[in-house]
Amino acid sequence: MTPPIGHDRSCLAIVLAAGEGTRMRSSLAKVLHQVGHKTLVAHVLTAAMQAGGAQIAVVVGPGRDDVANEAKRVASQASIFEQRERLGTAHAVLAARKALEAGADDILVMFADTPLVRPETLLRLRAAIAGGAAVTALGFRPKDPAGYGRLVMKGDELIAIREDKDASDDERKIGLCNGGLMALAGPSALKILDRIGNSNAKGEYYLTDAVAIARELGLKATVIETDEDDVRGINNKAQLAEAEAVLQQRLRAQAMEAGVTMVAPETVFLSTDTKFGKDITIEPNVVFGPGVTVEDGAVIRSFSHLEGAVVGKGARVGPFARLRPGAKLGEDVHIGNFVEIKAAVIEDGAKANHLAYIGDARVGAKANVGAGTITCNYDGTNKFHTDIGAGAFIGTNSSLVAPVTIGAGAYIGSGSVITDDVPADALAIGRGRQVNKEGGAARLREMNEKKKKDRG
Ligand code: UD1
Ligand code: MG
Question: Which of 67, 84, 230, 264 is the most buried (most CB within 10 A)?
Fold first, then answer.
């Protein structure tokens, strides 16, 4: 992405993550909930960094180490500030006073519960500041403006932002609303913020008052408009699901734009970090958990669930396959219906086409794992490894009791329970020998009929 503004401008992003929404009904902090398998605060931090926010300040509530740790994980350079009392958005911004004093050209104030803001939108805010505004608000036109701050305009100029509770009846009719995020020019930011008071309906220090104060100081306030999705705040589980739906649409569109074929994109669920190569086909009803890479030419068939997995070039997965963390499929591997793979490397050209569990294992190149094969990796206490050599053939319904090694080219007879290593190219059969008794079936039936009669 090329910023529409000079690279020489420095940018501080202040992410407000204090002030818990109580309507999530969860023991997890609101901003640690996820959309696209990424926390809300991580989405906001990523957008800030993509828009050139090299300096990051995160304002957290008292004792919120969990939020601070997540912020540090995503943006190690972030400084963390605590807002001890929840006295309003301007008060929260001033909790990061030290970061403001360090001086930056552009300051972005962002809300950690507004995860879908796009870096492009942040860059437009920064461009407005670079263009001479002291304050730039992010406006949008919701279907129902109730509850939002209203943007009071005079021509192109932004005169004030009036919070819903403080607005007059006429002001409440204004359709252009405040999205919440805001950009401030670094040199005047502290002067403006320090003048914000709390004489309003909520008794809070409103960040939105920055607009009127900037004008009193003879500075310029402007608005850029965006669509509702950019400023979608999350306060409850229903809004979390709505944000997820919007994000999924964006991720699907990005994947298709990059050349992925999806037969029914609305039924495919992606993660923010899902990676696709070229010429990939995804059939309907596939779920990608976090950490999946799909390489060129692979086909993911219906009803498959993938998580923490690599699907190699030209591989085929599903229908109804499950790839769990650590599943690494090489080139042209086939993983068929009702096959589960966990922490296992499946080398080039190997196949497990039906009904199998392969966990803590290596399956060598071109090996064939028959239906019903299980790697018995767990004894109830410890996990053990199974190693299957290249070109081995595992007959159907075999139990491979780990730790165990099947040599290259070995052949396991169907229904075997394999507890000892099998040398390369050996044939191993580990099951009861079959006995045929002539006329035995007839004698058995006669015996059973007699028992039935005797019982009356
Ligand atoms: C804010 C805007 C409003 C806008 C709306 C958009 C203000 C005064 N009002 O209202 O104009 O239409 O967003 O959704 O800015 N926070 C803190 N500490 C505090 C208070 C808030 O960290 O003391 C954080 C919250 O966690 C949240 C964000 O700031 O992430 C916004 O606060 P919130 O109370 O949701 O503001 P709104 O009333 O929604
Ligand atoms: Mg809000």
Answer: 67
* 3-state SS string for 272-334: CCCEECCCCEECCCCEECCCCEECCCCEECCCCEECCCEECCCCEECCCCEECCCEEECCCCE
Mean pLDDT calculated for residue range 96-117: 97
- Helix runs in 207-285, H state only: 210-216, 237-257
Provide the pairing of β-strand 177-185 with 106-111. antiparallel
Ligand 1 within 6 A of CB of 89: yes
Distance 2 CA to ligand 1 centre (A): 30
User: Best substitution site from 24, 84, 111, 177 to test ligand 1's pocket, by max atoms within 8 Å of Cβ?
Assistant: 111
Question: What does the pLDDT read at residue 308?
Answer: 98
Q: What is the pairing mode between strands 368-369 and 351-363?
A: parallel
Q: Are residues 57 and 134 in the same domain?
A: yes
Burial 302-319 (b: 16+ CB within 10 A, else e): bbbbbbbbbbbbbbbbbb
**What six digits make up the tokens of 97?**
């006073």
Burial class (CB in 10 A: 0-12, 13-18, 19+), 13: buried
In a domain, 222, yes or no: yes
Rg of the chain over all Cα atoms, to the nearest angstrom: 31
Burial of 377 (0-12, 13-18, 19+ CB in 10 A): buried
Residue 435 lies in a domain: no
Q: Which of 419, 424, 421, 423 is nearest to 391 (CA)?
A: 424
CA of residue 146 to ligand 2 center, whole Å: 12
**What's the CATH code of the domain at 75?**
3.90.550.10
The reply to whether 451 falls in a domain is: no
CB of 121 closer than 6 angstroms to any ligand 1 atom = no
Domain ranges, residue 290: 237-428
Do residues 214 and 289 both lie within one domain?
no
Question: Are 215 and 247 members of one domain?
Answer: no
Q: Each residue of 181-211: pLDDT tens digit? A: 999 999 999 999 999 999 999 999 999 999 9
Which residue, 207, 21, 10, is CA-closest to 96? 207
Helix (H, G, I), strand (E, B) or coil at 159: strand
Q: Is 92 in the pocket of ligand 1 (CB under 6 A)?
A: yes
Ligand at shortest distance from the CA of 88: 1
Q: Give the total number of structural domains in the chain.
A: 2
- Is 91 labeled as catalytic in the residue annotation? no
